Amino acid sequence: MNPTPFFSIIVPIYNRPDEARELLESLAAQTDRDFELVLVEDGSTRPCAAEVEAFRSRLTIHYIVKPNTGRSDSRNVGMRASHGAYLIFFDSDCIIPPDYFATVRRYLATEPADCFGGPDREHPSFTPTQKAISYAMTSFWTTGGIRGGRTNLEKFKPRTFNMGFSREVYERVGGFKDMYGEDIDLSLRIHQAGFTTRLYRDAYVYHKRRGNLRKFFRQVHIFGQARINLFKLYPDSLKAVHTLPAVFVLGSVGVLVCAVLLSPWWLLLPAFYLVLLFVDALIKTRSLSIALRAVIASLIQIYGYGLGFLRAFVDKIILRHGLEDLETLKRVYK
């Protein structure tokens, strides 16, 4: 029998065999190999069985195929099948740098934490649109500061594209709930249970995210809705920074009204912001075309999140719809 691995990697996957190959290739190149991979196929019509078989000789893989029940249940299934002292979560569209686990092990020795996470970065192989989306999701000038590795805006809460915690955390707190914002919900429960959480800045991953702007809008729209659900479950979790996209949306309407009724000079406000985004993106990406795309992606991120936030605020706070469903989520999901 093999000794218990130090890390158990848990990845839900749905219809993404190409991404699975890239992820597996990056895991096979790790300098610290003391891990197992639990890959949970969530009812895919395009499974990654062939990709898994191609890496059987290079990785310890537990490949679980089950009906489609969603990413939260898939992660919970993966945790129940895991054996490691620490559970690590990645999204299937991540590429892992070769020293990731060596870096995490070093952090655990020098800055111990019960729960931890790291930022994401763009990879040279990403398409221009993916690089633009990466900018939008990590820039201080959008709502991406936390994901980019900054903690000054709110207390850091790991996301499941790059998140880990000890087995003791899992045994005491339980797994993921079937809801939008499930990773933040679990981070909040971990904090409430008295466990420590840290940001490991150098333990980053390359996160592809969505391949086109339409899917990106839908994703961030859901993020905005999730924030209201989390507020209903944890009233203290809502911070001023979370309302900024909604304020931006309402402010944009106000600026347009003032520009029409009072003076077109009001349009200088959004123009200044767009120039700021473009210059910052140009400095960071060193590409004119990507910087232009980054401005569009940033606006999609802010408006998508803000509209989702406002939609859920009206639905859940003002009209009080779906409160019964939220009440059922207050229990700990085992």
UniProtKB/TrEMBL annotation:
UniProt-listed SUPFAM superfamilies: Nucleotide-diphospho-sugar transferases
Pfam families to which the protein is assigned, alphabetical: Glycos_transf_2
Keywords: Membrane, Transferase, Transmembrane, Transmembrane helix
Annotated transmembrane regions: 240-259, 265-283, 290-314
GO molecular function: transferase activity
Record's keyword annotation contains Nucleotide-binding: no
Organism: Tannerella sp. oral taxon BU063 isolate Cell 6/7/9
Domain Glycosyltransferase 2-like residues, every copy: 8-170
Name of protein: Glycosyl transferase family 2
Acyltransferase listed as a keyword: no
Domain of life assignment: Bacteria
